Amino acid sequence: MPSRKLYTRFLQLLLPLLALAYILAAFITAALYYQNQITEADNQRNKTLDTFAHVLIKPLWDCNSLTASGIIHAMILQPEVLGVSALDQCTQQPIQVGVAPEPGDKNTLSTTLQYTDEAGRVHALGELRIAFHSISIFTAASRSLVPQLAVFLSMLAAVLASVLWTVNRTIGSPLATLRQAMREHRPLTPIPDDWTEELMEVTQTYNTQLQDLHRQARHDPLTGLANRLLLEEHLNRTIVQVERTGSQGHVLLLDLDKFKPINDSLGHAAGDEVLRTVAQRLLACVRSTDIVARLGGDEFVIVTSDIPSYPEPDNIDALVQRIEQAMSETLNWHGNTIEISCSIGWTRFRREGNTPAALLAQADAEMYQVKKSLLRDR
């Protein structure tokens, strides 16, 4: 599937909702405007009817047919008037202009024409009828929606611009920063203070998981010791330190004796417990600046470097004795006594030309010499 930007997806979801909101608002506005038009039209129609009826009474009473006809012709010139009719009492002839008003039609208004003389007597002069244009809801809607559409489009442009700016600032840019950090497999620290709570939580989770992955990639899952990858990184740093400062350093390689019979007789669970115990005992024998690693199987490596600030660097023979003494303690496993012993070979960092592979190979060769010596003594 083609990738979509966040703001594109946002607009795809937002625009239908805005269109629906506009249609609903337009419908309600058109309905209200239509009702308002009807009310205003009724008031205007009644006012027109009353005004012209009042003006028409005297000419009809005076049998001034010309004036009466002129007034009725003037009525048809009104914007909303379709037709007018009245009766000339003197000639008994109807005066009609435009469409003939139909009695009972909702768009036709009528009123009785009456003249009151000086004696207070009322004389009927017939009826005035005016037919008006019908009020269309579509006409009313078009009149109301055109300005509303202009306002809506202006507001929509302003809203979309502000929303896009806000989304890009609060979500888009932070996500781009986080995505770049994830591509480079690096932690994102410090997390910007202006990020939202959700983004900060996601970033913190990512940083934690990245730290866990880095640790898992560089540590042995069984013993928690450094694995070969972390060992080589530490060896490279130690080589640089030793060659730059002229300090001393050693690489010790340990191989457990008779480890396979323990696995075969007591099971792999017992063997795993032996490896974990050995790891803890080795850590107790070294300094915090040293590193203990498990190469695999029953092989362990210790890298120790004497920092120049130390007044008296540890002696390698003393370290070997501490390790052998720690290994001499037996281990109880579900009622079974397990004896642990190891063969240790070590080598010293040279002044130059050190490599991790060469140091490990030299320590391994020394360790096998120790094993051979033990076999001969037995």
Give a quick rundown of the structure.
With 378 residues, the protein is an alpha+beta fold.
Protein model, in words:
By secondary structure, this protein is an alpha+beta fold. It folds into 3 domains: 6-138, no CATH class; 185-218; 221-377, 2-Layer Sandwich (Alpha-Beta Plaits), CATH 3.30.70.270. Helix content is 57%, strand content 18%. The protein has 9 helices and 10 strands. The strands form 3 sheets. A 4-stranded antiparallel β-sheet has the order 2-1-4-3, with helices on one face. Strands 6-7-5-10 form a 4-stranded antiparallel β-sheet, with helices on both faces. A two-stranded antiparallel ribbon has the order 8-9. Helix 1 (6-61) runs antiparallel to helix 3 (137-183) and helix 6 packs antiparallel against helix 7. It is rod-shaped. The model is unreliable at 308-313 (pLDDT under 50).
Task: Outline the secondary-structure elements.
Layout lengths: L5 H56 L3 H12 L4 E8 L4 E6 L9 E9 L5 E11 L4 H47 L13 H22 L9 H18 L3 E8 L2 H8 L1 H18 L5 E6 L2 E7 L10 H12 L3 E3 L2 E3 L3 E7 L7 H22 L1
Antiparallel strand pairs: 1-2, 1-4, 3-4, 5-7, 5-10, 6-7, 8-9
Helix pairs in contact: 1-2, 1-3, 6-7, 7-8
